[in-house]
Fold ATP synthase subunit a.
Amino acid sequence: MANDPIHQFHIKTLVPIEVGGIDLSFTNSALFMVVTVITAAAFLIFSSSSRGLIPSRWQSMAELSYEFVAGMLRNGAGTEGMRFFPLVFSLFMFVLVANLLGMFPYFYTITSQIIVTFALAMLVILTVTIYGFARHGLHFLHLFVPAGVPGALVPLVAPIEVISFLSRPISLSVRLFANMLAGHITLKVFAGFVVSMSAMGAAGMFGAVLPLGMTVALTALEFLVAFLQAYVFTLLTCMYLNDALHPSH
């Protein structure tokens, strides 16, 4: 069981709770969602508490995170998009911290659960849809008819754009979920090779050097993927929010 690469993704009930026949149990996934929020909040509060003129390393990290997300949002949705900064920054920090916490042994990777990533993606798409209709009314539907399309092609292009829009939460959630799931499975498989081969004596221990090297390399790669997936999720969020601000573009 220790070498089972799928076992690390199992949902376990920690505090059983049932209300009206509905299972609302507190699970290991819920626990690490709470841990993720607390860790991200503690980092930002601690790093910004001193607010020194000459920033400390922690303060510099917090300020770099702020400017990094703000720059992404300005480039993706324009200056007007800064009204969504609290949402976008919260999503970036949540995904990044969740990905990084999942790299610790015996910790749970909540972004490896499709229901978690789909909920985050739906939050983005619902924000785009609700704000788009609230601000532009029916003109928001211009999003599905790109500027410059000949009238004869509108019946063909519009359904394609609608399908593309509806597929966004699926692609956004599956991209994050699949990368984290596949990466952790691969890492666990190579780590399992090290344990299995080490138990075969001297020859096995010598042969375990190769999978051990691969495990170290994959660990470094997974830290990079943890950041890249948070970046991609946030970047796409900025692009989608731009559609809510400028649906006719």
Observations:
- The two ends are 53 Å apart (CA to CA).
- The beta strands are 13-15, 18-19, 22-23, 26-27.
- The longest helix spans residues 209-245.
